[in-house]
Design brief:
Strand content of chain A: 5-15%
Helix content of chain A: 40-55%
CATH topology of the largest domain in chain A: Aspartate Aminotransferase, domain 2
Order of helices and strands of chain A: EEHEEEHHHHEHEEHH
Number of helices of chain A: 8
Shape of chain A: globular
Low-confidence stretches of chain A: none
Oligomer: homodimer
Structural class of chain A: alpha+beta
CATH superfamily of the largest domain in chain A: Type I PLP-dependent aspartate aminotransferase-like (Major domain)
CATH class of the largest domain in chain A: Alpha Beta
Largest sheet of chain A: 3 strands, mixed
Mean pLDDT of chain A: 94
CATH architecture of the largest domain in chain A: 3-Layer(aba) Sandwich
Radius of gyration of chain A: 20 Å
């Protein structure tokens, strides 16, 4: 998993995948929350299978899943027991126009437009934008006394895991952001429940305007004069 | 299959499904090309599993598949080996909001709107409209000397299988309709290749305006004076 969204950690696929290949192993990379927002080089990093989504850093509607395989992965193909994900049938559908399913033309057109927008911005500029807005957020959070869960250098630009300060009712803060500012941020999962907030800055939502709005909204929620219910007694 | 679109035949599910139930068999009905355009009574006809699509007689975009099961079918549920179609996981997703997949909200909103339009028209009025336009087409075709493949009483209202007259280059006629009138009709499949045209009148396309347009377009294509290439030497 390149973007580990439960912790906000960027896994170094560029370092890990070539090690797997050296040992003859195939790799499969989940790039769901990174594709379009963090550098990803499927060929250069020796990734054998990679999949993502359309609704996060690409900014298209949800409903489709880009997927790609290396020739090494394709050579080791086994008979598929699922009609839905039979690569041979999907291959015939896309390349030879043999009927497999009725695709959602609406979603394909939307993805096409989203990819055109990515092209207009330029992929490297898009990565740089995600990086810039991540740093702007981290800097602003530090001014509010808030720190990040992952150490410097291991942080995702697309999903920002922020430590909840002691004595704060984190669910009340999230509710306040949603009710007052129409901003939804995520809660911590599993062992991190109640301990972090998870702030997505993906695709169009990775913008200075939204970073500033979130920082102001958090400031208002955490201000002792106004926070009332959010600071636990 | 309720609507057998390769032949234009309506299968009498209301008669067949109860026979299956009498013998203790479960039934699964494909209502892909009938749901919303032909009467369908899943409960009343003792159907155990039924699925359809959104892009035909419901008139929504493609990409979703309505599916329903009887309690008898659910009692005989077996462990599912597909994550994609694991009914228990889908059940938990829809009813308990446990994560299974990211659904396409775009398509769900579109389906919701399409269903509102069905409600406004009324389901029985919608069926009656499909029936009426089917009969208008059959009558108009007869005036052009064209006849239907299925016998009277076994014909779908949603997919009309029309016999190609002898000596007509049916592919040239279809190309003419598409090029000149932006009307796409289907070709025959398998043993019916070259022998029938398949005319869909589903959802919004089941309209008097489109029936008349098709009849005029066919008339022009088949007219000896103008047909030139369409009548084989």
């Amino acid at each position: 998993m390149q973007a580990e969204t439960s912790t906000g950690v960027l896994n170094p696929i560029d370092a890990l995948a070539p090690i797997a290949r050296e040992h003859g192993a195939l790799t499969i990379v989940d790039a769901v929350s990174s594709f379009g927002g963090q550098p990803l080089d499927v060929g250069g990093w020796a990734i054998d299978a990679c999949y993502s989504c359309t609704q996060k850093c690409l900014g298209a509607p949800s409903g489709l899943s880009p997927v790609v395989f290396s020739s090494r992965a394709l050579e080791r193909r086994v008979k598929c027991r699922s009609f839905y994900f039979d690569l041979q049938l999907l291959d015939d559908f896309w390349l030879k126009r043999k009927y497999h399913h009725t695709m959602s033309s609406t979603l394909v057109y939307a993805l096409y437009e989203a990819l055109a927008i990515v092209e207009e911005e330029g992929l490297e500029s898009r990565w740089a934008r995600h990086e810039r807005n991540h740093h702007a957020l981290v800097t602003g959070l530090a001014e509010l006394g808030l720190s990040m869960l992952p150490p410097h250098g291991e942080r995702l630009w697309t999903l920002n895991a922020v430590r909840v300060p002691d004595g704060i009712d984190e669910a009340a803060v999230r509710r306040h952001l949603l009710d007052e500012y129409n901003i939804e941020i995520g809660a911590g999962l599993g062992p991190l429940t109640g301990k972090i907030w998870r702030v997505g800055l993906m695709g169009a939502s990775s913008s200075p305007r939204l970073v500033l709005l979130l920082l102001e909204a958090l400031k208002s929620a955490l201000s002792p004069a106004r926070a009332g219910p959010y600071v636990r007694a």
